[in-house]
């Protein structure tokens, strides 16, 4: 998605060679117009998949996932990273380690919001090592739901996430695929 790539080049900040800071438009300050366009793109790409729910992991995936869910006219389910007083029993849980923070957390899904009849579009802001997506897929498998596709805003293609997810048999559709980045440049994989 050229609009997202352009915004990454304009406002993204590379830290080292593997962290991309996008706090000016995705995960601290959110650009609602960009999120709407992202939601439209995901909705169009997955239009023929019979999606019944969009799922994301809190918190940076919420805005684009909500826009996609709205465009598809389906509910959004948010997988929780933090314990909650309202989510305390009848849960699916799995441990996930974040690439960015290098911390583990219990990813949680309430059993009453996903069923075996659901056809899921999983949306996340980044894909690096594929750990978050793999954890989300584990939870959705526990619920016997079908993962129809995975939508990623920014994929760091020089890391193994896409390969790991593809090896599990899932389609990954990324709006911006970065093949290389450092403090001075960001190179994208151009899709045909």
Question: How is the secondary structure organized here?
Answer:
Elements: H1 2-11, E1 13-15, E2 19-21, H2 32-45, E3 53-57, H3 62-72, E4 76-79, E5 91-97, E6 104-110, E7 119-127, H4 131-142, E8 146-156, H5 161-167, E9 172-181, E10 186-188
Parallel strand pairs: 3-4, 3-7, 7-8, 8-9
Antiparallel strand pairs: 1-2, 5-6, 9-10
Describe this structure in words.
It is a single chain. The chain is an alpha/beta fold. It has one domain (2-188): Rossmann fold, CATH 3.40.50. 28% of the residues lie in helices and 32% in strands. The chain has a 6-stranded mixed β-sheet, sandwiched between helices. A two-stranded antiparallel sheet has the order 1-2. A hairpin with a 4-residue loop joins strand 9 (172-181) and strand 10. The longest helix has 14 residues, at 32-45.
What shape does the CA trace take?
globular
N-to-C series of helices and strands? HEEHEHEEEEHEHEE
Fill in the CATH topology. Answer: Rossmann fold
- Computed Rg: 16 Å
Tell me, rounded to a whole number, the average pLDDT.
93
CATH architecture: 3-Layer(aba) Sandwich
- Count of beta strands: 10
CATH class: Alpha Beta
Number of helices: 5
How are the strands of the largest sheet arranged?
4-3-7-8-9-10
SS strand fraction: 25-35%
